[in-house]
Amino acid sequence: MVRKLISFDWAIKKILRSKAHFGILEGFLSELLFTDIRILEILESEGNQETQDNKFNRVDIKVTDSNERIIIIEVQYSRELDYLQRILYASAKVIVEHLSKSAAYADVSKVISVNILHFDLGRGDDYIYHGTTRFIGLHNQTELELSQEQKNLYTTETIADLYPEYYLIELRNFNDIARDTLDEWIYFLKNEEIKTDFSAKGLEEAKETLDVLKMNPEERLAYERHQEQLHYEASMYESTYVLGKMEGREEGREEGVYENKRQTVLLAHQQGMAIDMIASIVQLSQHEIKNILHEEGITGL
Fold it and tell me: Per-residue DSSP letters for 224-260?
């Protein structure tokens, strides 16, 4: 019989931040990125703070890969809908948080955003998507490359290596057939089970560490409440989303999108982010950004 294991979002919040259990996250990231990942430290950031809000199941970690590159990886396990711009904002925020004021731009950290999703994000029939930044010529369709001097400066080979990368793992699209070791991790993330013949890096430790039966009564009660809250949120989402879709509430949806952008603007301003950067993140003009801030009584911009 396959034992039920603790869900990965709860593990991120409560267990995997401990150095004693780094092997689990290292195994998952090594399988996903096809390189040996070693965690150096859990970073001090807003995303790593303890919170009662189940939406913030996020951990920022500094790692090194098999080529000894230092990378910041942000792992999020989310059930949110307003997401594409949120991950863009989060990766930009990670960069700002971990670049000292006196540092040169060449010292900007490489960021990889790993997002484990419990909802359908856009249209697509795959369950793992990888996004990078490339510059393609409008006329010749050739890709812009780094000069040798830039390669030496940045110690990397491509422009894409400098910019954030995004992995979107859409668990609902996975058909539960594990064809390789990465699929074994996806199976666990979706079903909270690890089959006896699975051999992916980190899964053996995950099976031992995340066994629900090994939780004490207090931990079990907190975990059960967490699961009940997730079921409630999922139910509320399904009912409101389906009803709204049936009734064709496009205007209300657009208002909700704008409100989310407005909240992002206020949060980014509180974090000291420049107006031009905020505008690029939320896709509003600088004039609109200033109007939002003025409405909140923020002047002197």
Answer: HHHHHHHHHHHHHHHHHHHHHHHHT-HHHHHHHHHHH
- H or E segment and range at residue 78: strand 70-78
- In whole angstroms, how far apart are CA 64 and each of 16, 39, 116? 17, 7, 21
pLDDT in tens, 241-270: 445 555 555 555 666 677 778 888 887 777
Nearest to 125 by CA among 180, 173, 175: 173
The token pair at 253 is 């949806």
**In the block, which residue shows the tokens 């992995």?**
167
**pLDDT at residue 3 is higher than 70:** no
Partners of residue 60 on adjacent β-strands = 74
Amino acid 53: pLDDT: 46
Note the pTM of the prediction, 2 decimals. Answer: 0.69
Q: For residues 249 and 260, what is the distance between their CA atoms, to the nearest angstrom?
A: 17
Q: Among 242, 301, 236, 245, which residue's Cα sits nearest to residue 273?
A: 301
Question: Where exactly are the structural domains of the chain?
Answer: 8-214, 219-247, 249-301
Amino acid at site 192: E
233 residue type, one letter? E
Number of CB atoms found within 10 A of residue 186's CB: 25
Percent of the chain with pLDDT over 70: 81
Contacts of 216 (CB under 8 A, 6+ apart): none
Q: How much is the mean pLDDT over the chain? A: 81
Look up residue 169 and give its amino acid: I
Helix (H) or strand (E) holding 188: helix 181-191
Alpha helices in 15-53, H assignment, sequence order: 22-33
141 three-class SS:
coil
